[in-house]
Structures are given as C-alpha cells and as structure tokens.
Specification:
The chain is an all-alpha fold. Helix 1 packs antiparallel against helix 2. The protein has eight helices and no strands. The protein has two domains: about 140 residues, no CATH class; about 130 residues, IL-4 antagonist (De novo design) like domain (Four Helix Bundle (Hemerythrin (Met), subunit A)).
C-alpha cells in the first residue's frame, strides 16, 4: 500500500492534480467526496483516500509489532507512525497553494513530502525484513544473491522510464512506473545490506552505495534542481553506476561459495 501510495502521489503531482480541489484540505471543492469520474479533483481526492487507508494499516503494523514484543520491529514500525503526522501535515501544506499557505505548492515542500514518504517506506521495509529474519531456510549469501537479482531486474526496467535514460517520454504514467519499480530496487537493497551484515563486508558496501545512488536519482526526478542537459547527463551516469554496483555485488556473491565446513546460515567473510 505504501508503494502504491507513493506511486499515486507521483502521478498526482505530475498531472498537476495537486492543484485541484480548489486548494482545500481536507475537503475537495467544498465536498467530502467529489464526482467519481477521472478528473483532477478525483485524482487528488483518491490519493488522499489511499493515504488514509495506508495510515490505518501502518498503525495496525505498529500495534502488531508492539504485541509481538520484538525490539527491532517495534522501533521501525513505531518510527513510521511517528513520521505519519509530519507526512500528513506536509501533504496538507502542499495542496493548499495560495489557500492557507501561499508557498505550499513549491519545490522545497514537494521535496520534504517525498523524503518523508521514502523514510516511512524504508522503516516499513525494515519492519518486514526484521519480522521474517527467522523464517528463512537459505543462508544469508543466497538471500543476498536473490535480492540483488531482483534489484538488478528492477533497475533495468526502471531505466525504460527514467528521466536520465531518454528512451520514453517522461509522462505522468512513466513517472509513476519509474518510482514504483525503483521502490522495489530500494527494498531489495535494504534486504541485501541487512542480510550481508557480518557475512560479506564488500558486498554490503556495494549494495549500500547503490541504495544511496538510487535514492538520489529518485530525488533528482522530482525537479528538485533545474533539469538541464548537464543534470540529465549526471542522472544517466548515476543510473549506470547503480547498475554496475548491483551487478558487481551479484558477481561477488556468485563467485564466493560457502565452505562445506561452515555451519548453515552462519557464513562469514574471509
């Protein structure tokens, strides 16, 4: 749901639908529910509706983690809840434009909204990874290979829609697909960094650097800087660097086979 919400938020912004609803929040054009047809008012309202459902699910996740009694899952799940009011407030400011806040619909506010959304997504991803850490039959290195494989495929697909790779027009639909697939790469790299801790230091560093680069390209794609030909070239270079790092991590993990004498699931780097 959080992936869907961020993707929908990108589409809403790209279509200019954040300017709809007559700069009102939480109402939309003096209504609680606008006309249910595909128009800017509906797109903006639907984004808010999905955000509300996702918010309740995040609260439920935190409640589950609290009852489970695990410290790590509780910290990350509750951290996502703590960020929720901030994200809601920034979203409200973003769509008021010249209504309540004159500077609401501006690049800095959009940037803060995306950063908060990515932070919540990261915390929820870590909650999931921590919750399932005892339910894997494969050793950490094998898990890392699988996660990096998924990441590499996601990166190659995201390149079709990326603004830095001029293959397709960077339309609202392309932007939504780019961020949806990029988020899959993000969670794959988060899992890799976690699973390779204490197992393969270099592989973990490669995944961590690729993660930082991907997040950077996602921020560049939201017009946080003037998108000049130089910035596009930089964006393309960062994309290629991320692909190389992930491919290098895969090559390293496939090239280092677990020793038969190493206890299953407890391998360590040489």
């Amino acid at each position: 749901m959080t992936v869907s919400l961020i993707t929908l938020g990108v589409y809403t912004s790209a279509t200019g639908s954040g300017l709809a609803c007559q700069a009102q929040w939480p109402l939309c054009s003096d209504q609680l529910i606008p006309t249910l047809t595909i128009n800017p008012d509906f797109i903006e309202w639907f984004h808010r509706f999905v955000a509300m459902i996702t918010g309740f699910l995040i609260l439920g996740t935190a409640g589950w983690a609290w009852r489970r009694g695990d410290r790590r899952t509780t910290r990350t799940a509750v951290g996502a809840v703590v960020l929720l009011p901030l994200q809601i407030s920034i979203g409200a400011i973003t769509v008021t434009i010249n209504g309540l806040v004159p500077w609401g619909y501006a690049v800095p506010t959009h940037a803060a909204h995306l950063v908060a959304a990515l932070s919540i997504f990261t915390l929820l991803s870590l909650t999931t990874i921590y919750a399932y850490r005892e339910h894997h039959s494969r050793p950490p290195r094998a898990r890392g290979r699988r996660a990096l494989g998924v990441t590499l495929v996601a990166l190659l697909v995201s390149g079709l829609f990326s603004r830095g790779v001029p293959l397709l027009q960077y339309s609202p639909g392309a932007q939504a697909w780019y961020y949806a697939v990029s988020l899959i790469a993000v969670i794959g790299l988060l899992a890799t960094v976690y699973w390779l801790t204490g197992v393969d230091r270099l592989g973990r560093q490669l995944a961590g650097l690729a993660l930082a680069i991907i997040v950077g390209t996602m921020l560049i794609g939201r017009d946080l800087v003037a998108y000049t030909p130089t910035v596009q070239l930089l964006n393309f270079g960062l994309y290629v660097a991320a692909v190389v790092l992930v491919a290098g991590g895969l090559w390293r993990l496939f090239g280092r086979v677990q020793s038969p004498s190493t206890p299953f699931g407890t391998e360590h780097s040489e």
